Amino acid sequence: MSVAAYGRTVAVEKKEETGLANPAPLGLLGFGMTTVLLNIHNAGIIDATSLGMILAMGIFYGGLAQVIAGIMEFKKGNVFGATAFSSYGLFWWSLVCLLLLPKMGYADPVGKGGMAAYFFMWGLFTFCMYISTLKKNRALQTVFFTLFILFFMLMISELSGSVALLHLTGYEGILCGASAIYLAIAEVTNETYGQEVLPIGKIKEVEEARPEYPPGRMPPGPPVRGYRPTAPRFGGEEHPSSPYGGWR
């Protein structure tokens, strides 16, 4: 594709359509709904008899759905989405294994120190990912910031053994999961209606103006090697063979 600018033909790269739907809502819902259910349990709202339901959600919607979303983001060339969804999908699978393998006799139960280290590393990873969200929308920033806080509260809860702190952590986790659900529904709704129905706090990027310069005028900055602008004669007529730039 090309456009004409000041009499010159300028090549413009045309973005190729991938034909893939936006996988972010699927991944966000898988993460958000599973996170809410787990933290309802942590908050003490539902008892331990619901653990089987939470594990099933962790295997399929929290784990498998996010891994699928991550693979789709890889195909779209979205490094952030691919890294986030694939990682957190595998997080849910690893958490399910940590809970089930000891009960199946394949591993010893993980101690408080081990679980604290586990949550610390995931909190550190989440903080690093949060830095990248500063270039994205406010809703996504909220998801990652509250998730970062959640992991470190879980780490402290493991080390302290405080039930009250675990319950508080559960309410913070509900907020984190709810923010992910909101962002997912907002993306689906806004894409369906073709406009922003549910706000997500988009950040406006200020692009640096790059003015075009007509023939005979040198752009500001250091001279470009091999650049030979044409100089006009008196009266404004251009002289194509003149080695000098600027106006006489």
3D structure, described in words:
It is a single chain. With 248 residues, the protein is mainly α. The chain has a domain at 24-193. Helices cover 59% and strands 5% of the residues. It has helices at residues 24-42, 51-76, 79-104, 112-133, 138-160, 163-193; strands spanning 2-5, 8-11, 231-232, 238-239. The strands form 2 sheets. A two-stranded antiparallel ribbon has the order 1-2. Helix 1 (24-42) packs antiparallel against helix 6, helix 2 (51-76) runs antiparallel to helix 3 (79-104) and helix 4 runs antiparallel to helix 5. The radius of gyration is 27 Å and the shape is globular. The protein starts with a strand and ends in a 9-residue tail after the last strand.
Summarize the structure.
The chain has helices at 24-42, 51-76, 79-104, 112-133, 138-160, 163-193, and strands at residues 2-5, 8-11, 231-232, 238-239.
Primary descriptors:
two-stranded antiparallel sheet, single chain, 6 helices, disordered N terminus, mainly alpha, 248 residues, disordered C terminus
- Beta percentage is under 5%
Order of SSEs, N→C?
EEHHHHHHEE
Helix content: 55-70%
Number of continuous helical runs: 6
- Assign the structural class, choosing from mainly alpha, mainly beta, alpha/beta, alpha+beta, or little secondary structure: mainly alpha
C-alpha-based Rg, rounded: 27 Å
Task: Label the overall shape.
Answer: globular
Sequence stretches where pLDDT stays below 50 over 5 or more residues: 1-16, 232-248
Order of strands, main sheet, comes to 1-2
Count of strand segments: 4
Mean pLDDT score: 84
Biggest sheet overview: 2 strands, antiparallel
What distance lies between the first and last C-alpha atoms, to the nearest angstrom? 37 Å
